[in-house]
Amino acid sequence: MNIEELRDFCLLLKGAEEGMPFDNKTLVFSVKGKMFCLTNIEDYEFINLKCNPEEAILLRERYEDVIPGYHMNKKHWNSVKTNGRIPKKLLEEWIVESYKLIVLGLPKKIQYELNEE
Question: What's the pTM?
Answer without folding.
Answer: 0.94
